[in-house]
Amino acid sequence: EAGVTQFPSHSVIEKGQTVTLRCDPISGHDNLYWYRRVMGKEIKFLLHFVKESKQDESGMPNNRFLAERTGGTYSTLKVQPAELEDSGVYFCASSQGGYRPTDTQYFGPGTRLTVL
Amino acid sequence: QKEVEQNSGPLSVPEGAIASLNCTYSDRGSQSFFWYRQYSGKSPELIMSIYSNGDKEDGRFTAQLNKASQYVSLLIRDSQPSDSATYLCAVEGYNFNKFYFGSGTKLNVKP
Lengths: 116, 111
Fold this sequence. Notes:
- The structure holds two protein chains of two kinds.
- By secondary structure, chain A is mostly beta strands.
- Chain A has strands at about 5, 10-15, 20-25, 30-35, 45-50, 55, 65-70, 75-80, 90-95, 105, 110-115.
- In chain A, the strands form two sheets. In chain A, strands 2, 4, 5, 6, 9, 10 and 11 form a seven-stranded mixed β-sheet that branches. In chain A, strands 1-3-8-7 form a four-stranded antiparallel β-sheet, with no helix packed on it.
- In chain A, a hairpin with a 2-residue loop joins strand 5 (about 45-50) and strand 6.
- Chain A is globular and about 40 Å long.
- In chain B, strands 2, 4, 5, 9, 10 and 11 form a six-stranded mixed β-sheet that branches. A five-stranded antiparallel β-sheet of chain B has the order 1-3-8-7-6, with no helix packed on it.
- Helix content of chain B is about 0%, strand content about 55%.
């Protein structure tokens, strides 16, 4: 079974440009999460999709970030315009959904974004 | 106050020794706890999950949970050089839809 995949693995852009990150979750997983790790800090939650709906976007830093999940499959995270402080590693995770006490999240390899 | 606290390390142990990694969390309502291992440049990989007070063993790994004291630990027995990585403690939020991570503890196992 394929794991969570992310594209690109690295992206270097200049301040003010636009970047779009893509995540393909594990097939059949309803839940998709985006996290970010800024250098020297912990991994922080950005948002959560259940299928195509945004369940929680409380971690999105500001309105320069836009996440979508087309048809409940893959997701994109767009940063427009990018700022220096957006640099970091963006992780995507997915989980199957519907299982308690918890629902294990499986992580992708991340996209390393560098804004110059 | 951070939701999840870990000692950043590095923690150095000789090969064959027991490595002990600790984590504390702030939300008393948290119910689910996870340890992930992350090699440099790779994705976090789930090692253990624990939901009830006490110990949970899986091979060389033992997770310990004490909800009253709000701490979680991971013991690695017979540590191997291949265990050298950053270990992330994750706690599921009260609303069951996000994980809170510690900053990770870097473990070095010396041959």
